[in-house]
Design goal:
This protein has about 200 residues and is of the alpha+beta class. It is built from 5 helices and 5 strands.
């Protein structure tokens, strides 16, 4: 029976790229294995930070604390107010900061003591889709080969495989996102046709 790729599977693929034998667990104390696991975690975060359909949510409600501030969860990679809000925000000191009004106070934007934001999450390796796992593992294997043994040959050999893996990830993204030239399933990035009345003004 086919099973989903586990983190142990991913680490063993990374190790095999430099000719290392597979391991049966991730608590062996072997520094090479630990380095491979750290590389896999690093690349997983980097890939997920791009923002994919599986780890992006729109108009996600975040509750204000008693100081009318928003404390951001640790597994939140990116956070922004919806398009059209007119407010630029960023993460500072673990909280959401309003760069437009220079404040941590979001009471003006709150409804029912909550603020709707667009977020990108970071998930554990086992919780990401198979197509993304495959891309993460192959990319991590190439990065690890370059760092661990400085093997330009191994990296070059894996570049084509990495390109194909990313293509598979993008194929998953387009299928799940229901994208077209007019927008996506969330109604975002809607195509605006040319309207002369909106372009030419007469006084």
């Amino acid at each position: 029976m086919a099973l989903q790729t586990t983190k142990l599977d991913g680490v063993n693929i990374v190790l095999s790229n430099i000719g290392q034998s597979p391991v049966v667990n991730l608590v062996s104390g072997n520094p090479i294995v630990e380095m491979a696991e750290l590389t896999l975690d690093e690349i997983s975060r980097t890939v997920q930070a791009e923002g994919w359909i599986f780890n992006t949510e729109y108009s996600y409600p975040l509750k204000l604390n008693t100081d009318n501030q928003i404390v951001l969860p640790g597994n939140m990679l990116q956070c922004d107010l919806p398009v059209g809000s007119g407010i630029s925000v960023q993460r500072r000191q673990g909280k959401l900061y309003n760069r437009t009004d220079h404040t941590y106070d979001f009471s003006a934007q709150a409804s029912d003591n909550k603020v709707a934001v667009d977020v990108t999450w970071v998930f554990e390796f086992e919780d990401i889709p198979e197509a993304i796992k495959n891309y993460v593992v192959i990319r991590a294997a190439n990065v690890f080969a370059g760092r661990a043994v400085g093997s330009a040959e191994a990296v070059k050999f894996g570049q084509q495989e990495e390109t194909l893996a990313r293509a598979g990830a993008l194929e998953y993204e387009t299928q799940q996102g229901d994208y077209n030239i007019f927008g996506d399933s969330q109604g975002l990035n809607t195509y605006n046709s040319y309207r002369p009345r909106s372009t030419v003004y007469r006084y």
